[in-house]
Amino acid sequence: xxxxxxxxxxxxxxxxxxxxxxxxxxxxxxxxxxxxxxxxxxxxxxxxxxxxxxxxxxxxxxxxxxxxxxxxxxxxxxxxxxxxxxxxxxxxxxxxxxxxxxxxxxxxxxxxxxxxxxxxxxxxxxxxxxxxxxxxxxxxxxxxxxxxxxxxxxxxxxxxxxxxxxxxxxxxxxxxxxx
Length: 179
Description:
The chain has 179 residues and is of the alpha+beta class. 25% of the residues lie in helices and 33% in strands. Helix 1 packs across helix 2. The longest helix is centred in the middle third of the chain and has 15 residues.
């Protein structure tokens, strides 16, 4: 399975490539951008490139990552699906935005087409997002996209850089999806 390319009003979403390491490193290498991520920041661009190679080595039916590129210029971030459970028709969605592109609504625009792909082409029934309680930007994005918070804090769900973190479970069901 190959990942499709999507175009929106402001964005081009295309499969991530190793050559995207400089653009993605603007997020992966930034401690503030990675504050709520499930891994510590990349120490250098070589580590970011290695993370991209690891993603590319996984079959697309299990994990897919798109580069989010602003059509007028600039690498704005990435969005991915992972933790695919075909039997239950469920997967998880994740995203990160380069700080220079924060608060512009770009990830809302990107996520809408990725959700459409996951529900339609991949025939998913449920899409999940695990979000740390303090990550108000991602919680707001999930809510705008139609996700429902369905848990209190799931204590110590993630181990990142030696520290346990709690998360909230958000979900969006195909029947509730407005797309």
